[in-house]
């Protein structure tokens, strides 16, 4: 099993041009369907309805993003009793700013 140090990876997407724009649009469409977005220490948590409608789309998004944004870490949490589905996207220093800029998320103030 390989051990990776995400701190040594560049904070950048390996996609360029039209491919990058298309991926950004498809990613935003899924993530913007979340009920809320929470800023966490080293990234963001996206909270989705627990009915499972988006499970395959969220999983496909994670698989695709892992190929081009090697520095990101993804966690999917399914809460008990059909509670919310949470997608945490985190990374090393600079990753939160990258996520915020890519998704046009408003920075937390105060």
Helices and strands in order:
Elements lengths: L16 H15 L4 E5 L2 E6 L6 H14 L4 E6 L6 E6 L4 H9 L7
Antiparallel strand pairs: 1-2, 2-4, 3-4
Please give a structural write-up.
The protein is an alpha+beta fold and 110 residues long. Helix content is 35%, strand content 21%. It has 3 helices and 4 strands; from the N terminus they run αββαββα. It has a 4-stranded antiparallel β-sheet, with helices on one face. A hairpin with a 2-residue loop joins strand 1 and strand 2 (43-48). The model has no long low-confidence stretch (mean pLDDT 86).
User: By helix and strand content, what is the structural category?
Assistant: alpha+beta
Uncertain spans: none
Shape: globular
What fraction of residues sit in β-strands? 15-25%
From N to C, what is the helix and strand string?
A: HEEHEEH
In total, the number of strands is: 4
| Helix content class | 25-40%
C-alpha Rg (nearest Å): 14 Å
Give the count of helical stretches: 3
Distance between the termini: 42 Å
* Spatial arrangement of strands, main beta sheet: 1-2-4-3
What does the largest sheet look like?
4 strands, antiparallel
Mean pLDDT across residues:
86
């Amino acid at each position: 099993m390989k051990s990776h140090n995400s701190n040594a990876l560049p904070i950048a997407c390996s996609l360029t041009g039209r491919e990058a724009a298309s991926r950004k649009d498809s990613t935003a469409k899924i993530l913007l369907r979340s009920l809320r977005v929470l800023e966490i220490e080293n990234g963001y948590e996206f909270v989705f309805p627990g009915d499972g409608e988006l499970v395959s789309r969220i999983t496909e998004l994670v698989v695709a993003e892992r190929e081009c944004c090697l520095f990101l870490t993804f966690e999917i949490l399914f809460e008990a009793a059909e509670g919310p589905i949470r997608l945490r996207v985190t990374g090393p220093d600079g990753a939160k700013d990258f996520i915020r800029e890519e998704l046009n998320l408003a920075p937390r103030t105060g």
